What does this fold into?
Amino acid sequence: MTQPPLTIAVSSADASAKLAENLAARLQPGDSILFFGPIGAGKTHICRHLIRPLLNIPEDVPSPTFTLVQTYDTQSGELWHADLYRLSDPDEVQELGLSDAFQSAICLIEWPDRLGDDAPADALHVTIEPDPDHEDKRHITFDWTDPKWPDRLEGLQHD
It folds into this structure.
């Protein structure tokens, strides 16, 4: 049975951060989250707040826009944060080693359209849409095909 997507409206950057922190507690090695949305939607902001609560030792969480991939040792195992915006060919993804990371690490991927056919089939898709009438408001939609996600997302907006 196909589940409908889950859409949560957040009214501020702080509310987005709280939602990300709640989601972080539900992630396990081998989980991939693909982040969709226009430039400035808040993909990196949410990724930062997913990463920070999982870190063993607090550290800066920069945007991987120029490095393409940042890796972290977390209490849940290895975590990869990738920003694929600057890639122009899906073949470049192979050089980053993401296909191996998808199997064993938590992977947060911004601009996942650059993955082409290499996108993990069991990934959680997160689409962030700015509200045109309210600068800080976002509509965050979670969509999936893998049966592991409904239970993991249960109660997410109420945590």
Observations:
- Helices lie at 13-24, 43-51, 91-96, 98-104, 149-153.
- Residues 10-140 form a domain with the Rossmann fold fold (CATH 3.40.50.300).
